[in-house]
Amino acid sequence: MVESLIMEKMKRSATCGELRVSRVGQTVTLNGWVHRVRDHGGIHFVDLRDRYGLTQVVVDADASPSLREQVRSLKFEYCVAVSGKVRRRPDAMVKNDLATGEIEVAAQELLILSSSDTLPFMIDEAADAKEELRLRYRYLDLRTPAMQRRMRLRHELTLAVRQYLSGQGFYEIETPTLIKSTPEGARDFLVPSRIHAGRFYALPQSPQLFKQILMVSGFDKYFQIAHCFRDEDARGDRQLEHTQIDIEMSFVAKEDIFALLEGLLVSVFQSTIGVGIETPFKRIAYDEALNRFGSDKPDLRFALEMIDFSAPAAKSDFQLFKDILKAGGVVKALVAPGCASYSRKQIAELEEVAKTYGAKGLAWMKVSGGGIEGGVAKFFEPQREAVVDELGAGEGDLILMVADSWKTACTSLGAVRTRLGADLKLTEGKGFHFAWIVDFPLFEWNDEEKKWDPAHHMFTMPQERFLETLESDPGSVKGDLYDLVCNGMELASGSLRIYEPGLQKRIFNIVGFTEAEAERRFGFLLEAFRYGPPPHGGIAPGLDRLLTIMLGQSTIREVIAFPKNTLGISPMDGSPSEVDGRQLEELHIRLLPPKE
Questions:
Q1: How many DSSP H helices and E strands does the chain contain?
Q2: Under a CB-based contact definition with an 8 Å cutoff, are residues 35 and 116 in contact?
Q3: For the whole prediction, is pTM greater than 0.85?
Q4: Strands 221-229 and 171-172: what pairing?
Q5: Which residue of 22, 52, 504, 579 is most buried, as measured by CB atoms within 10 A?
Q6: pLDDT tens, residue by residue, 496-537
Q7: Percent composition of the chain: helix, strand, coil (DSSP 3-state, to 5)
């Protein structure tokens, strides 16, 4: 009955965001949700909302008794249809901050399409609700203006990416979702085959191998808005499933890839949020990024650069520093401006941040009264002026130091730098700061297994100057791989690819992949490389991360319609969940009891 009434006379003729004074006098029908109801002495005001906006509906005191009875029964989030005449609001009631603020609709008919239970949180107060509650009732959270704007921008961004890359001659080509399990850095999600007992598909961590095969196939400009799956611990900028803008090109150098991505970002930032971006982006070598900022994804919105404090430390009376330096370590220092007022508790909190990244402790001293005091200051007293001058510290500053191996000292003090940037509000209102991080190590030493692992993936091209020393000195080899970072977040990662079978075999040997294992895991790609593969390379910006940066959010969960929580659980639908025993039998699976 309700459906036929909508089709016949209550079907929407205008959205709740489109009416203006030019429509005054017209009869319209609105469909939407009751955002708010107010009774002002017999005159009822209903704020009606849909994804386009909000319109004030008025049921006047002289309206029909049935209409007035209906409006009195309305509650939050009832879904209704309203038909009435558009009229101008009285001057005193005009709302200039509302797109429809100059008009209202005088209701003539009202139809309740569906009712709503008591809400777990108010729609206009959802941002104040606990995240777990928002995820449990995500369909309500998605009704909020903030989430509606984010989903709209996600659509506009995706469309802008497609338009730009298509305009550059790229084809959008889909690659499979059920693929062969291959090692790509994280655990695969496995999908058992019902038909082929004991065999499994994997969900793709990325379309890496297939996009390389597309290059062999002659599609020299490929892209895809790709859904990717990685069985890893969730955190602010990670989810078990995420979306990336996957790009691969043939016959290119990395300069071509940099130029393409910079052009893409200039275009989408301007067309979606109206922000201009300066290019070319800065380029910072990996070693330099760690030395100066303690991170390979440095936040460049604030300075606070780290300083090598090894020389002054060697001259000090602090034996712990001297022992670490003698063992080949370094001492890194950071000056926190105006933080000499920090309490012992605040400094201890910073120390815990450093320890999280492997530091054994965080040494400190304060600049006060023209000298240094507190913490380890007594060990540096004979050279206090030189220390303050070398660090560029000023009155009221706090000096923080970590002594350890080079990488641990850099990354742990870099984490402290990031924490200070947030605590001191150094990032607020600073816009978007992009940089290319280049000259990454090609290999990383795996201390547990006593072997070299690929830093990126096994198909990354080593820089030509290191080809002669690949086997003799893997630790010094730099790869033709690169990351794009923005505001302290890794936005994209990519590389030039190995396409010559002999060089690929050398890489496999270094990382301990036997020829038989390589054939078993990657045989189809290696076989394709026997048939005239082109030089190629690519990059894959994370769509979720890009949106997070554009909107100034702290987690990608805020820009994904139905994300998992930090435990990898969906509070809304209860996944992951147990399945029926018959399903397991069909898949030839028997569950083991949980480990003690």
A1: 17, 22
A2: no
A3: yes
A4: parallel
A5: 504
A6: 999 998 999 999 999 998 888 888 888 899 999 999 999 999
A7: 35, 25, 40
How far is the C-alpha of 141 from the C-alpha of 346, rounded, in Å? 36
C-alpha separations of 516 from 183, 523, 525, 528, 555 in Å = 15, 9, 14, 17, 42
* Encoded tokens for 559: 């820009």
CA gap 497, 489 in Å, rounded: 24
Rounded to the nearest 10 degrees, what angle do helices 145-167 and 254-273 cross at? Answer: 140
Percent of the chain exceeding pLDDT 70 equals 97
Amino acid at residue number 105: V
pLDDT tens profile 281-293 = 999 999 999 999 9
Supply the DSSP string of 347-401, one letter for each residue.
HHHHHHHHHHTT-S--EEEEEETTEEESTTGGGTGGGHHHHHHHHT--TT-EEEE
Query: Collapsing DSSP states into helix, strand and coil, what is residue 9?
Result: helix
Exposed, middle or buried, 419 (CB in 10 Å: 0-12/13-18/19+)?
A: middle
| 560's tokens | 């994904």
Q: Which residue from 96, 126, 105, 123 is spatially nearest to 56, judged by alpha carbons?
A: 105
Domains of the chain: 2-114 (2.40.50.140), 148-284+435-572 (3.30.930.10), 302-426 (3.30.1360.30)
Output Rg (C-alpha) for the chain, integer angstroms: 30
Assess contact for 297 and 437: CB atoms under 8 A.
yes
Question: In the structure encoding, which two tokens stand for residue 521, read together?
Answer: 């895991």
